[in-house]
Amino acid sequence: MSxxxxxxxxxxxxxCLCFIILTTSLPLPAHAFTSQQYHDALTKSILFFEGQRxxxxxxxxxxxxxxxxxxxxxxxxxxxxxxxxxxAGDNVKFGLPMAFTTTLLAWSxxxxxxxxxxQLQNARAAIKWSSDYLLxxxxxxxxxxxxxxxxxxxxxxxxxxxxxxxxxxxxxxxxPQNPGSDVAAETAxxxxxxxxxxxxxxxxxxxxxxxxxxxxxxxxxRYRGSYSDSLNSVVCPFYCSYSGYHDELLWGASWIYKAxxxxxxxxxxxxxxxxxxxxxxxxxxxxxxxxxxTKILLSQEFLVxxxxxxxxxxxxxxxxxxSLIPGSPGFQAQYTPGGLLYKGSExxxxxxTSTSLLLLTYAKxxxxxxxxxxxxxxxxxxxxxVGLARKQVDYILGxxxxxxxxxxxxxxxxxxxxHHRGSSVPSIRDHPQRISCNDGFQYFHSSSPNPNxxxxxxxxxxxSSDRFSDDRNNYQEAEPATYINAPMVGALAFFSAKPAAT
Length: 502
Prior knowledge:
The radius of gyration is 22 Å and the shape is globular. Helices cover 47% and strands 3% of the residues. The protein has helices at residues 9-25, 35-51, 95-112, 120-139, 152-155, 181-197, 203-222, 227-231, 246-260, 263-276, 291-303, 311-324, 349-367, 382-397, 421-424, 441-444, 475-478, 482-496; strands at 93-94, 145-149, 171-174, 374-375, 378-379. The active site is at residues 419, 470, 479.
């Protein structure tokens, strides 16, 4: 063989196999953070959601630089759509990412709420702020789901804090004539998952959420179509449904089954799964594509409850997990030189946090089962998945080549110039006079750090070479988003409860 020739497939297989054996048998390295530090990060990751609140703020609001905003949302359409969350650094309420955020916040509490200690109530409050809004959006008008408030093109031409908004607060909806199965089924998933969170603490509210979830799922399934086709430039390119709506239908049905135990939804999954993506191996989990998350969620039924009909989902969940493990025959992922999972240049950390939640959730399911997991010819333990997730979480918190925490307010070095209107413009407390649409750009272009600390916000993160530009103008790296933070809540809860030796 010449020096430039590639190793044969058989040699590559044995190299991969050796790597897997090593990674599943060696002790985990020393850890960068203590349980107390993880708990501090957990506290801040939940606090971030207060900074994204729309509507009338409660008396116990901790991020006091924020004020009331968008108090008449929906009124010109004779519907109350006050509340909910702004998705990122702008002032629009986008229904698809808000619903996905809610589902993952709820999943974080469902799996790891017992580890949240004094933050459990705050996590529930973060979920309820959104589930209250989604409940109104789903039940205010028959055969209608309100999916967005705010004209995004006009909003993005302004740089103003939400308290001063004067851009159009147009309301957008999906109906039988203009369907949106993707956003509707994700809303159903969010309501169903939230119903599980409140099942014991508020049974009446939980029941109301579940009934609404069933109603909006039936609407999504009966009137099929993508909301991107119905609403077009209003949601594209902002939150265009690139993966279509099949993945959300399967995801929504899975969450309603988990919340209700109704065999009708298991039958739906069995009858429709092959058409809706059950046979697909996808290696990304995000606000757009739910397939990997659905495989992990349904695998619990097989692993823990031995529901044989769902063995297929466990097999595909294994494929997804193997795709993340370097050296595995099914390895698909890309990592930066510093070890960060890298999926794309825009808001990459959304994939890192969502993947970390799936790794830890699957590790929990495996630990509760006598059924193992294999990548090629090697067994992979739950502890390996925990170690891989910890590497990602620690990287975000500061164990990285830049030695920077990508969570605002955590550690000694973190982003100071995040792409976020409310954080970068003087607060209404310090500057009560209105700051208009165009006047706000002086703060956008300023070289000074943001005056308001959006504590707990996780930004988009570094590039593929581990370099980070703390530049307000670089929204790809410097903008936070609710769906980046939501799965991190569960991951941080898990690690805050684990001694450093595990």
